[in-house]
Amino acid sequence: MPDRFPADGVVERVTIWEVGARDGLQNEQSIVPLEVKAEFLRRLAEAGLTTLEATSFVHPDWVPQLADAEQLLAGIDRHDGVRYPVLVPNERGLDRALASGVTHIAVFASATEEFARRNLNSDLTGQFEMFAPVVERARAAGLDVRGYLSMCFGDPWEGGVAPEQVADVAARLRELGCSQLSLGDTIGVATPGHVERVLAAVSARGVPVDAVAVHFHDTYGQALANTLAALRAGVSTVDASAGGLGGCPYAASATGNLATEDLVWMLDGLGVEHGVDLDKLVATSLWMAEQLGRPAPSRVVRALGG
Amino acid sequence: MPDRFPADGVVERVTIWEVGARDGLQNEQSIVPLEVKAEFLRRLAEAGLTTLEATSFVHPDWVPQLADAEQLLAGIDRHDGVRYPVLVPNERGLDRALASGVTHIAVFASATEEFARRNLNSDLTGQFEMFAPVVERARAAGLDVRGYLSMCFGDPWEGGVAPEQVADVAARLRELGCSQLSLGDTIGVATPGHVERVLAAVSARGVPVDAVAVHFHDTYGQALANTLAALRAGVSTVDASAGGLGGCPYAASATGNLATEDLVWMLDGLGVEHGVDLDKLVATSLWMAEQLGRPAPSRVVRALGG
């Protein structure tokens, strides 16, 4: 653990939204056994993570890896104070989530026209009509709904994305009933000034900073510097993936999600509370790397696990 | 190249002190041929880097990889506006540097007692007596002298290092005649608040920020976030290694120097001038990785070179 040196202007406490079990595993080619997934979630909870995105109710044909969502949710050993959100793409997914007794869901929106077309078979405004009944029914059933916004900092087909467009999508998802918006740098191209600019635009559209999370990819090595910029802007929920598992199939390299361990190292150094036991987390990622048959991308895992 | 979004409070221009040819190669086990080293330097200069630390005049028994320092310096194709500093450990090394027509040298000091004992066979104060005649004679001969300070943020034997101790060593090296001090996080444990704290301590000891450089290692993934903190504190010289070559043999993993490409990506995004052509630099690191027979650690190189 690093020495503790608080920095001015950084939030005091951060909630880590752990996406390893869903975002981390969804692009794995070989199917991870159900019991390994359950054990992964159990270990993550024991390491002190309190938000574990568990799986996704997308159609099994799209993401075969997560076709066991019902069985996984039925079998996991739920820890007190831990929430297990699941991704829900549409009303059919919501039906499955409700039948599984889920309390937190997330919808996956796009900040750009082209990604909305390719990923949602819709368009930038059409997606709100798609999500409206999902969010409405989920809220009516007492569920909490997060909205993911992908391609907030660049799109592989469109190139640059206007911060005001991101802010507009964020505000509209919030109006639909999303309690939190996770701004995703899906292809990893953001830099710290860009992060500040997008957060300012979102704030100017009336979305409070405590309803905003950030989701950075480390494709170009920028994820932690971008996180620092977000923490200074008041963001207190950060998405990360244990061991750095996963990534975006549309990004230029296999390097993907910000590693939870690298984030925890920085937060420990900054004296920001997060509740995670780094040693237990590293042990979990080393164990998971063994299951997957290759080393974790996280620098901290490699340094401490060697 | 990322979209350009300047951030408040960041310097406008940065000098990249490229250490790949010296710090990057010195720990390579198999000897890199002289002509490959010369070609590496030529390509780095053509990519727009203006400070190329070329080699070291340490005793060949210590660093066999750099035993060809004289031949390399005699043979390199010097570019206008590019300086080729060399590391000089003692007066014998200075004699060799002077005989080679060098104009810029660097001495390698320690911020801690234990590393001074192990690396210099001296102690924290004794090292100044060691370096005094080297710096004095170099200055008298018209050479510019940089001082490296290693272990500024932590020491593998001592643990924590007081920022005031770092500041004291920096101030004393400056009094000896070093024009610039490079503060090294040799084992990669620093975090952004720690960087701010050390820079403030150095400044409080009367060392101007434009005489300070930073040298971060990416052992725990913190190098770029730490660099961002340094840029906000006014530092305008950043050490980096093309492709992320090299590292510290005392650090916990093989992950070492901040990769020049990852730094350039962030600087491009922040709109900070640096003069480097990213594509040419990536091509150089890909070429060097081929010579060394393994991929470059740099995330940008992996993303753009794939």
Automatic annotation (TrEMBL), chains A, B:
Organism domain of life: Bacteria
InterPro entries, sorted: Aldolase_TIM, HMGL, PYR_CT
GO MF annotation, one: hydroxymethylglutaryl-CoA lyase activity
Gene Ontology biological process terms, A to Z: ketone body biosynthetic process; L-leucine catabolic process
Domain Pyruvate carboxyltransferase: 14-282
Pfam families: HMGL-like
Keyword Lyase found: yes
Keyword terms, alphabetized: Lyase, Metal-binding
Keyword Metal-binding included in the entry's annotation: yes
Similarity comment text for this entry: Belongs to the HMG-CoA lyase family.
Protein name as annotated: Hydroxymethylglutaryl-CoA lyase
Upper taxonomic lineage: Bacteria, Bacillati, Actinomycetota, Actinomycetes, Pseudonocardiales
